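[audit] Reproducing an earlier prediction to check determinism. Same input, same settings, fresh worker. If the tokens differ from the archived copy the diff job will pick it up downstream; this log only records the rerun itself.
[audit] input (206 residues):
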Amino acid sequence: MAEGGFTRTFNILGNDELAPLFANGFNAAHIKFRVMPENAWHRSFVPALAAGAIVRTQVRRVTEVTERENTTATDFFLVGTKTIVNIRVPIVFNLGVKLTNASMFGIAANSPGWEVKPFGGLFVALKAPMHSRLTLGAEFARQPRQLKEVPGTVVPTTLSYMIRWRPGSDVPLTLELGLVHLGNNLGAGFDMDARHQLIVGASYHF
């Protein structure tokens, strides 16, 4: 089993002095393969394992803007996911590791070199009014600590929190609200002002 997709990221130029360094959009193609199904060999403690990659192209951020150079920021990852349903509040958690040269998921282009970083998340499923379903979750993703060609920067761990709501009917609608702690003051003269970023999403499956 495998899945893949493509995303184009667009940006709106802000009024901060650093905004031009993050104004360019980029492409992101991803692919993910299932390596092992959950509960393999009839063992309830065995997680599902998946491997994949995210390749971001035409990334022109930070120093690449002044150099007028596009670069590629890539993640190769292996992740395990486990669902526990035989408790009062079902939970899903995952834990993985990635080999990456992307800084802040490509938002700040590249790190100085390839690094191995962990990531993971925990999600709980709750019953909501009118038979709807509510999912609460939190994730972390360690980032390469430095930005390419920007000395003195210290990139923090990315933290995110989300709420996902689905109606109780068969309508294939999903609404999501997220809060991401991305990065604030990364070093002298490099304040991204992106510590608290709100994300709103909606999807409808045809």
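[audit] rerun output stored. Observation attached for the diff report: The chain has one domain: 2-204.
[audit] end
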